[in-house]
Specification:
With about 450 residues, the chain is of the alpha+beta class. The protein has 15 helices and 16 strands. The strands form three sheets. The protein has an eight-stranded mixed sheet with strand order 1-5-6-11-10-9-7-8. β3 and β4 form a beta hairpin. It is elongated and about 90 Å long. The C terminus is likely disordered.
Length: about 450
């Protein structure tokens, strides 16, 4: 039978054999964010198109070329989110978080959608971890946000990342810079790609980010934004660098970083790797002091970053970073016959309620087939139950790693299993006379034992 359809180009299935990697990364980023005082937010997968046109910027490639936009049945223009910040700002305003104590520090794990050429590290549906801090103009917030991203990479074991920072100024000093860019690029206008010819009048800074080899070569000689910063922006950028040095975070200044979205002001930054080819930016962000006001709120200095999870996983795999082992069942019950199956169901229910992962064969195959199945699942222990075991109330619990067998009472199975499995683990530990924390094993409280 032919497959009806395949996954849409630019999308990727997360399979059971790999899901522990996603779960580990997601748990890690949320845990670190919480340590920095960030709380999780969840927003809808689609928003009114105008939100992204105004928030992301209509001169960006994202808005001009990459958004998934459609009219719904009510005739409204709807867009699948291409990034997380605009929706987070909308939620911040609509739900009154702007009236709470500032700064408001939120984070999210979200799917994003962009119609662009799929390649390694670049998908049309991708997942992103994002951080947004609303209501702080201090350069300390910039440095702390960079520190948060750095903590994630350090915890995950990612190496050889280069942190690149820049300041693209405020609207006042950037206006002067735009004039200089227009003058420079106008002299080479005929050589620019068609997209950059359009950018020349609307947002010449976007030309600096063009991937066309010709435009990149022209941009190499363009005026540098750092030469046009006002005193306030210079002082802000200097303070960010001082805080980064105090945190022992290495960085380089790259005056060509402008980021791909129009809302950025002042500090912008990227963490870049050379381990995964052309798509080397694994985290990027910066300050967007005018975005909340642009979307209808009061002036609110803010900043954030986005980190692509698929690209991060690609980098971790390329560098051979360690992941926790995939979870395996604590117990597999091999049941022979109806009575044994009934007992298996009873034991499994009790075991699961006590926090142990327990599996039995739903297809009720032969003992040999069940044992092979248990081995493939990697179960830590198994127990074989037949009519004799049900009648006697006794069975043999086997440690699948060591091969050791233990007598166990089926009517007191949970307690017996806990004590046996605990003893097996303690045999491999060196406690060195210190009091052992029993709650660290299986998440079970040992007080009564």
């Amino acid at each position: 039978m032919a497959l009806i359809t395949k996954a849409i180009k630019g999308t990727k299935d997360a399979l059971p054999k790999d899901i522990h990697k996603y779960q580990y990364i997601e748990a890690t980023v949320l845990d670190i964010a919480e340590k920095y005082g960030y709380k999780e937010m969840r927003t809808p997968v689609f928003e009114h198109t105008e939100l992204f046109q105004r928030g992301v910027g209509d001169t960006t490639d994202v808005v001009q070329k990459e958004m998934y936009t459609f009219d719904d049945k009510g005739g409204r223009s709807i867009t699948l989110r291409p990034e997380g910040t605009a929706g987070a700002v909308r939620s911040y305003l609509e739900n009154g978080l702007c009236n709470e104590t500032l700064p408001q520090k939120i984070c999210y794990l979200t799917s994003c959608y962009r119609y662009e050429k799929p390649q390694a590290g670049r998908l049309r549906e991708f997942h992103q971890f994002g951080i947004e801090c609303f209501g702080s103009q201090s350069p300390l917030a910039d440095a702390e946000m960079i520190s948060l991203a750095n903590s994630i990479f350090t915890t995950l074991g990612v190496k050889d990342l280069a942190l690149e920072i820049n300041s693209i100024g405020c609207p006042t000093c950037r206006a002067e810079y735009h004039k200089a860019l227009k003058e420079y690029f106008s002299s080479r206008q005929e050589d620019l790609c068609d997209t950059c010819k359009g950018r020349l009048e609307r947002n010449p800074m976007r030309i600096l980010d063009c991937k066309s080899p010709v435009c990149s070569e022209i941009a190499a000689g363009a005026p540098v934004v750092l030469d046009y910063l006002c005193d306030d922006c210079k002082e802000h950028f200097e303070k960010v660098q001082q805080y980064l040095k105090a945190m022992n975070i290495d960085y380089t200044i790259n005056p060509k970083i402008v980021r791909g979205l129009d809302y950025y002001t002042k500090t912008v930054f990227e963490f870049v790797s050379n381990s995964i080819g052309a798509q080397g930016t694994v985290c990027g962000g910066g300050r967007y002091d005018g975005l909340v006001e642009e979307l209808g709120g009061q002036h609110t200095p803010s900043l954030g970053f986005g980190m692509g999870l698929e690209r991060l996983m690609l980098l971790m795999d390329a560098q051979g970073c360690d992941y926790p082992a995939p979870a395996v069942p604590d117990l597999f019950i091999v049941a022979m016959g109806d009575k044994a199956t009934m007992k298996a169901v009873e034991i499994a229910k009790d075991m699961r309620e006590e926090g142990f992962s327990t599996v039995y064969d739903l297809n009720q195959r032969s003992v040999r087939a069940q044992m092979k199945y248990a081995d493939k699942l990697g179960a830590k222990f198994n127990v074989v139950i037949g009519d004799n075991e049900v009648e006697s109330g006794k069975a043999k619990l086997k440690n699948m790693a060591s091969g050791e067998e233990y007598d166990i009472d089926l009517n007191l199975f949970v307690n017996g299993f806990y004590n046996i499995s605990l003893s097996d683990q303690l045999a491999d530990l060196e406690i060195n006379g210190e009091e052992f924390d029993f709650t660290s094993l299986f998440g079970v409280n040992k007080e009564e034992d």
